[in-house]
Amino acid sequence: MTSRNVLILPGDGIGPEIVEQAVRVLDKVNTQFDLGVQHESALVGGSAYDETGSPLPEETLSKAKAADAILLGAVGGPKWDGLDMSVRPEKGLLGLRSNLDLFSNLRPAILYPQLADASSLKPEIVAGLDILIVRELTGGIYFGQPRGIRTLDNGEREGFNTYVYNETEIRRIAHSAFLAARQRGKRVCSIDKSNVLEVTVLWKEVMEEVAKEYPDVELSHMLVDNAAMQLVRAPKQFDVMVTGNMFGDILSDAAAMLTGSIGMLPSASLNADGLGMYEPCHGSAPDIAGQGVANPLATILSVAMMLRYSLDAKDAADAIEAAVSNVLDQGLRTGDIASEGSNIVGTKEMGDAVLAAL
Ligand code: NAD
Questions:
Q1: Which stretch of DSSP H or E encloses residue 245?
Q2: Phi then psi for 42, rounded to 5 degrees?
């Protein structure tokens, strides 16, 4: 059996508390499914700055490069808000993304039927929602050159950015989306603005080319304005949505909010070699850090994504997701997803319940 190395980065705030529960779950499935996973921990974010003077110590980066997958809690907090930008905790996260070339951001928006009341939309529209948004993370208008604010001859200022994607960038995110779709409902909807923007005309063409390599996956296209509308009108029509950096930024937040419960949402950022960094969508929640009340489920579900997308252990991933559904069926809720009459538990009790369900 090949061994797989996972780097654990607890980070700041509630990070260490939620990651502790996620690691217990990882250890359990590791034994149950004989996965051969080994893990070690390292510092990142504010806690790394406190110990070493850097939010991304050299040792952490080299361990990250050598790992098969990374599990991260969250970084940041008011303690470090006054620091210079170059050493802020968030720099640790961005440094990992850029150094490891994590261009493919996978953000599921899953609404467990048991939590349908948490959404701002009607339960029948969102119950059972299970969308995966695949967002290009290292290119597009957020990085395109030239960019800036210039003063014209008439003295008026003008802001400008460049929306650019080359074929290689589009092709690799397309492969990411098709491969992910193969693990799910086998449908990809590519989101563009090809009625106005040439860059997305090319995007659409390359998507069509790559689709030929995945005859088992169905490809469709949708304009981004319509996609925004469809997400709030009938979100369950989507399986995998793939799009560029800016459209993905906006649509993935909208999709996340359909579920109404940020404490439940995992995410993955992958590079071309399959190395992935897995983390909850939420932040370090300084307002509840150290109280033992944070919801560990987004981090536990991030472990499931890690098993599915980086460690080729779909059965173990399925088992974790089923266990999470099972504890929700039992009525167990942390404060953030509680409603009237639910049985409110803390971080560790929620971890215990998932372990028991496994
Ligand atoms: P946040 O996601 O940390 O918190 C928003 C709200 O949601 C808070 O009320 C918090 O208590 C609650 N919440 C979040 N996760 C929860 C969980 N697992 N269980 C229960 N409740 C939960 O966002 P914020 O308050 O805007 O940011 C706090 C800090 O986190 C900032 O320093 C920010 O920079 C950082 N941040 C980090 C990441 C990351 O590490 N990927 C992402 C976003 C924000």
A1: helix 245-259
A2: -150, 170
Residues in the chain: 358
Nearest to 27 by CA among 54, 8, 46: 8
Residue 142 DSSP code: G
DSSP state of 80: G
Question: Strand, coil or helix: what is 215?
Answer: coil
How many CB atoms lie under 10 A from the CB of residue 87? 16
Please tell me the predicted confidence (pLDDT) of residue 85: 85
Q: Which residue has the tokens 């260490």?
A: 16
Beta-carbon neighbour count of residue 42 at 10 Å?
A: 19
The DSSP letter of residue 216 is T
**Separation in Å, CA 110 to CA 24, 35, 229, 300:** 23, 26, 18, 14
Q: Residue 64: what pLDDT?
A: 97
Closest CA to ligand 1's atom 12: 285
Report the chain's C-alpha Rg in angstroms. 21
pLDDT of residue 295: 96
Distance (Å, rounded) from C-alpha 234 to C-alpha 62?
A: 44
Strand partners for 134: 106, 242
Residues contacting residue 30 through CB under 8 Å, at least 6 positions apart: 36, 37, 316
Structure tokens at 44: 């990142």
Cβ neighbour number for residue 205 with a 10 Å cutoff = 13
Pocket test for ligand 1, best of 49, 284, 291, 337 (most atoms within 8 A of CB): 284
Nearest CA to ligand 1 atom 38: 283
pTM over cut 0.90:
no
In this model, does residue 1 exceed pLDDT 60?
no
